[in-house]
């Protein structure tokens, strides 16, 4: 995406920058969806472990979110509080559900990417270069944790987080997205610098995230055994050389089919890959990411 590859425009209030950020967020969701193989997940090649979603559902969904990403970026730039970000996020969830006729494609991404857009807004108006992960932790970490402890909703994620005592999407955000900044991005950059293709870099980044993440979608569908199976598969893939192994594509496809046979779907890992691609694009961390 050429516009996104442009040098950053210093003035956050500039509408071009808002547009650039919103387009990068939508583009990251699109690139995540297109990536294949991606175990158990929807791509243009197949629907993975899903009966109710296909590539077209994701395209409708991500397109519907373009104004949301612009709005939450601007909210961050004017130092909006967490309550305002949450209102924008909830409205975006409603927009997504209208676009997909009720299918939850991007609830996690609305939260993760939304917070990262807001953090970028804040960073763009700061006097000094600022660390995005630190902005998330310092600005909204306490509110995220507070909202977590108050939430008694019966969402899949909430039930799973309580049952298995894991942090889920909120834990990841409150900690400053360690799976994005400490795993997804360094992996993406390393593979590109080693002359890996864009697809190989994204694939390796996805496996690296999945190997480490407590993905509540996996826990919801298949419990601790499902999560363990998925993480072990990813760890083996990486230990066998990952995308540097001669047969890596075949191996990744095998893992994909094994996930589909077990109905496993690492949706949280997919969201964090999208977040990784977004950060790489807006900060130009990984060349041609
Ligand atoms: C803060 C919320 C988003 C929290 O929601 P919830 O209580 O549900 O908690 P989590 O499960 O922890 O997270 C929700 C989604 O986040 C993704 N995710 C999962 N694990 C992680 C993780 N460790 N780190 C980061 N992100 C993670 C995942 O999203 C993807 O999967 C969704 C599809 O899931 P599901 O509906 O269960 O679909 P299926 O598996 O297909 O179900 P079945 O078919 O089996 O029935 C999809 O959305 C992907 O994106 C988790 O699902 C929320 O409560 C909230 O507050 N939202 C509004 C506020 C907001 O957005 N604010 C924005 C800025 S503050
Ligand atoms: N490509 C994908 N397939 C299924 N669930 C997802 N959640 C986020 N991205 C996804």
UniProtKB/TrEMBL annotation:
<keyword id="KW-0808">Transferase</keyword>
<comment type="similarity">
    <text>Belongs to the CitG/MdcB family.</text>
</comment>
<protein>
    <recommendedName>
        <fullName>Probable 2-(5''-triphosphoribosyl)-3'-dephosphocoenzyme-A synthase</fullName>
        <ecNumber>2.4.2.52</ecNumber>
    </recommendedName>
</protein>
<dbReference type="Pfam" id="PF01874">
    <property type="entry name" value="CitG"/>
</dbReference>
<comment type="function">
    <text>Involved in the formation of 2-(5''-phosphoribosyl)-3'-dephosphocoenzyme-A, the prosthetic group of the acyl-carrier protein of the malonate decarboxylase.</text>
</comment>
<dbReference type="GO" id="GO:0046917">
    <property type="term" value="F:triphosphoribosyl-dephospho-CoA synthase activity"/>
</dbReference>
<dbReference type="InterPro" id="IPR017555">
    <property type="entry name" value="TriPribosyl-deP-CoA_syn"/>
</dbReference>
<dbReference type="GO" id="GO:0016757">
    <property type="term" value="F:glycosyltransferase activity"/>
</dbReference>
<keyword id="KW-0547">Nucleotide-binding</keyword>
<keyword id="KW-0328">Glycosyltransferase</keyword>
<dbReference type="InterPro" id="IPR002736">
    <property type="entry name" value="CitG"/>
</dbReference>
<keyword id="KW-0067">ATP-binding</keyword>
């Amino acid at each position: 995406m050429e516009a996104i590859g442009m040098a950053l425009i210093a003035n956050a209030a500039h509408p071009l920058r808002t547009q650039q950020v919103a387009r990068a967020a939508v583009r990251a969701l699109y690139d995540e969806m297109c990536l294949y193989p991606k175990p158990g997940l929807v791509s243009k090649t197949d629907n993975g472990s899903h009966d109710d979603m296909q590539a077209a559902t994701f395209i409708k969904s991500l397109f519907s979110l373009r104004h949301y990403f612009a709005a939450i970026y601007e909210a961050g730039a004017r130092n909006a509080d967490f309550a305002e970000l949450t209102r924008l996020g909830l409205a975006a969830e409603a927009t997504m559900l209208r676009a997909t006729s009720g299918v939850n494609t991007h609830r996690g991404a609305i939260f993760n990417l939304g917070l990262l857009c807001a953090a970028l807004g804040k960073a763009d108006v700061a006097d000094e270069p600022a660390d995005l992960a630190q902005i998330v932790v310092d600005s909204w970490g306490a509110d995220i944790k507070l909202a977590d402890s108050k939430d008694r909703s019966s969402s899949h994620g909430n039930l799973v987080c309580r049952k298995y005592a894991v942090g889920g999407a909120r834990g990841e955000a409150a900690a400053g997205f360690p799976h994005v900044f400490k795993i997804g991005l360094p992996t993406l950059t390393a593979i590109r610098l080693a002359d890996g293709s864009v697809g190989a870099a994204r694939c390796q980044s996805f496996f690296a995230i999945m190997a480490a993440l407590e993905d509540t979608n996996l826990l919801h569908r298949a419990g601790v055994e499902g999560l363990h199976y998925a993480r072990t598969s990813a760890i083996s893939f990486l230990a066998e050389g990952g995308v540097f192994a001669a047969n890596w594509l075949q191996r990744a496809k095998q893992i994909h089919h094994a996930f589909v046979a077990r109905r496993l779907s690492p949706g949280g890992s997919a969201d964090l890959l999208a977040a990784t691609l977004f950060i790489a694009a807006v900060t130009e961390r990984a060349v041609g990411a």
